[in-house]
Amino acid sequence: xxxxxxxxxxxxxxxxxxxxxxxxxxxxxxxxxxxxxxxxxxxxxxxxxxxxxxxxxxxxxxxxxxxxxxxxxxxxxxxxxxxxxxxxxxxxxxxxxxxxxxxxxxxxxxxxxxxxxxxxxxxxxxxxxxxxxxxxxxxx
Length: 140
Prior knowledge:
The protein is 84% helix and 0% strand. It has 5 helices and no strands. The protein has helices at 3-23, 31-50, 53-75, 78-102, 112-139. Helix 1 packs parallel to helix 5 (112-139) and helix 2 runs parallel beside helix 4 (78-102). The longest helix has 28 residues, at 112-139. The chain starts with a helix and ends with a helix.
């Protein structure tokens, strides 16, 4: 495990959440799905950079599943969007952590799973908190 990547990811994840709060992104319902939709693009860039078409194909297939998930989330009722998004962010974090084990060939840097995975999980937990607060506010 790369401790520096993990600590950097924690710091950046907390910085992103701080910026979210400053910009009031929690009040912009399209922001979170669009953010989640960008995550597969990093793997596509890594695969293009490597020049390995087989790696690119496998990343496009998996990434397309996340994009399909985002499309479903955007069609979901507003009350369920944040909960689904939190699941999507955390699922992508788990995917990051398992990426090198799932794919025999990977173009992602070896430090990427810890770095990006922890950012995804931190954002996912934050979005889950927002979903919980939204639900509590709706019931009162």
